[in-house]
Amino acid sequence: MDMSKDLVAASATPLVLAILAEGDSYGYAIIKRVAELSGGHLQWTDGMLYPVLHRLERQGHVAAKWSASENGRRRKYYRITREGRAQLAAQRQQWKTVDGTLRGIWMQACTV
Amino acid sequence: MTTIADRPLEEQIAQWRTYLRRRQAVHGPDVEELEGHLRDQLAALTEAGLAADEAFLIAVKRMGSLDALSREFARAHSERLWKQLVVAPDADAPSKTSRTELLVVLSLAVAAGLAVKLPALFGLPLSPNQEVPPFYFRNASLFVFPLLTIYFLWKRESGVASGLWLALPFAAGAVFANVYPLRTGGDTERLTALHLPIALWLLAVGAAYVGGRWFASVRRMDFVRFSGELAIYYVLIALGGGVVTGFTFMMFSAIDMNPAWFVGGWLIPCGAAGAVIIGSWLVEAKQSVIENMAPVLTRLFTPLFTILLLAFLATMVWTGNPINVKREVLIGFDLLLAVVVGLVLYAASARDPHAPPDFFDGLQLLLVVSALVVDVVALAAIAGRISEFGFTPNRVAALGENLILLVNLAWTAWLYFHFMRHRGSFADLERWQIAYLPVYAVWAALVVVVFPPLFGYR
């Protein structure tokens, strides 16, 4: 299934925030988690995640910290902040509304 | 950890990192972060059974195109592109830290300023109340260029040996400018003052800039770009200096002091010398900002000069007025040709050599051809003057320069014509311009070395 670019872009922020809400993580692990959660349907160009993360960092939704990884290189870990959780809740509400609306009209189409 | 079998992969990663680093919007830590991602991906792929090079291809592909990536980074960090305009320390400057460089540059700039004042200790003062001693004109290039050469030797980490080699042209220049008994105010003195800087710029500063790789045409083109960008920076700095000068006069006059001795004796000469070093450093540090400037100016002035030349030719044909040859006219037409060569050179330096010919190329060809026609007319007038009144150093120098530029432009026009008809590539034209650079250096050196004795030092 080919997802439209706009939809992928729009879902990136809530998805990243939701994954970070599960626990601190870093870029590569986030990508892997997205693939896992979507069953491979949601494919990002890997590099594109980082501008998203950096934008969230600037907006204060996530905080970042460099620390050592298991392979000895430095790695940048991201953590969701309180503002981030609030943002996630707001986004969740919005997506629910969209989802509910679409669901309503599709259910009708089925029953008619 | 790196085994021999891993080495090609490490090289590939290093290359990828270099490409990424060149993007202005992607900073050092971002590169590290992305590289970490690439390595994680590589580890996962090789674990899944892929060979190292296959894994690398896939990992890079998944990372996305560098263009799109840096565009996204630029959008997420729009301030970064602006920061490039200010001299911000580059996080991953290879071996020298920018602080050391700043220190070296400032010391050299101060040294250049002081060098200008050095002759004052030997009874040759620079002061607004008396005429500038001719010593300064003859030796103008010897105050600053050696220091600029030192800067590039340091920057390129050239050895002491190449430094000693490059001291030779300066020593020779000093000897020819001062040992020859040039008559004060004479033609040969003026010619030396004009040509010694050209010779030293191309032979010594250029050699130091390219780090000894004078024969690599890419480096030579870089030097051409550097020269143009330095000129632009220098003009900008000079404008700022003019504002400072104006305020100095205004403010000290307000408290009934006359700052002329300071402005004329220190501020302007020392500032003019130091600005060459500072300007070069700015070009080195911020190449990309002005890189876009030279092509823009070229695009702006190519049409204007074409119109000027065509209007001149049309007027001359219409009125039948011959060129009235005076000394200024000789130099004026040389300068005109130099400007046209400069326009061609900078257009070439900014152009993608693989792009097909377009409208602008046609315009350039028209510019070159009309400059050629104008020059042939001027040349005929100069030759007539020489046959009538005999040889003087000025006329011979002007004639020589004219011929050199004429040969350059004629061959340029030919190559352009070929290129426009899809028979040759633009790279030929670029190569020709680059290959021609030593001719200017040799001619300038000839004028300094041979002309004075040839014309009896008059």
Structure report:
The complex is a heterodimer of chains A (112) and B (458). Chain A has 112 residues and is of the alpha+beta class. Chain A has a single domain (5-111), classed as Arc Repressor Mutant, subunit A, CATH 1.10.10.10. Chain A has helices at 5-22, 27-37, 49-59, 82-111, and strands at residues 25-26, 62-68, 74-80. A three-stranded antiparallel beta sheet of chain A has the order 1-3-2. In chain A, a hairpin with a 5-residue loop joins strand 2 and strand 3. Chain A is elongated and about 60 Å long. Chain B starts with 6 loop residues before the first helix and ends with a helix. Chain B is mainly α and 458 residues long. Chain B has three domains: 4-83, no CATH class; 106-287, no CATH class; 292-454, no CATH class. Chain B has 18 helices and no strands. Chain B has helices at residues 7-22, 28-47, 52-63, 66-76, 78-83, 98-117, 134-155, 160-179, 187-209, 217-254, 260-285, 287-291, 293-319, 327-350, 359-389, 393-420, 426-449, 451-454. Classes of the chains: A alpha+beta (112), B mainly alpha (458).
Arithmetic mean pLDDT of chain B: 82
The global form of chain A is: elongated
At the first level of CATH, the class of chain A is Mainly Alpha
What is the CATH third-level topology name of chain A?
Answer: Arc Repressor Mutant, subunit A
Low-confidence stretches of chain B: 1-5, 82-95
| Rg of chain B (C-alpha, Å) | 26 Å
How many domains in all of chain B?
A: 3
Strand percent estimate of chain B: under 5%
Q: N-to-C SSE series of chain B?
A: HHHHHHHHHHHHHHHHHH
Greatest interface = A-B, 21 and 21 residues
Structure classification of chain A: alpha+beta
Largest sheet of chain B: none
